[in-house]
Write a structure and sequence with these properties.
- The chain is an alpha/beta fold.
- The protein has nine helices and nine strands.
- The chain has helices spanning 7-12, 14-17, 31-40, 60-71, 106-111, 116-138, 162-172, 188-194, 225-235, and strands at 2-4, 51-55, 75-77, 80-85, 88-97, 101-104, 150-154, 178-182, 200-203.
Amino acid sequence: MVQLVPLADVLCARPKFRSTSPEAGVYFRDRIEAGQVLARHLESYKTRSDVLVLGLPRGGVPVAYEVARELNAPLDVFIVRKLGVPGHEELGMGAIATGGIRIVHEGIIRELRISPQTVDLVTANERNELERRERLYRGDRPAPFVKDRIVIVVDDGLATGSTMKAAVAALRQQQPARIIVAVPTAPAETCAELRTTADDIVCPLTPEPFYAVGGSYADFRQTTDEEVRELIRRAA
């Protein structure tokens, strides 16, 4: 079931978000506030021993930290790297993710006649970057164990949702009990698309029209690697 709050309801509830900026389209003060609001929509998962919160670096981690803190749940990062078509890297022919998971889009590979060797080369390059980020954020800790757990995957917002779709697909291969996509803001159509792969979607704010994730924040400064590491350390 998709838990979407109509825009009119959100606008009526704006005082509880405590946003003070007069700029049009701003509903959350920052990622901390967005995470606190999101956590209120996830209260049914509070203090359950089978819940795991995963933040998508970098911007999703401050939001996920607040969610995990409010739910009394463990927090970790889940890293996804797109496999871009050589020469057209914005077009994804697959993705790799935490836990050694690789997903390929056979249709794109077949249509563009991309060789298996090319796919493997791109995968190797992206895996190096993924492993670098794993070491940076997680250190020597192993990847999170998700089998038979309720996994809440958090980002600071969605536009097309491509990264989140890859994360859900990768997590699904590890057989969690349920996958909950939780984001403060996203287009309604993106949430509807993710409903076909996730078990539940929680998104308090679906602006119409939707221009960008940052339009729902007064402060949307880039999250740094150091901030991610500190939040993961605090949660541990």
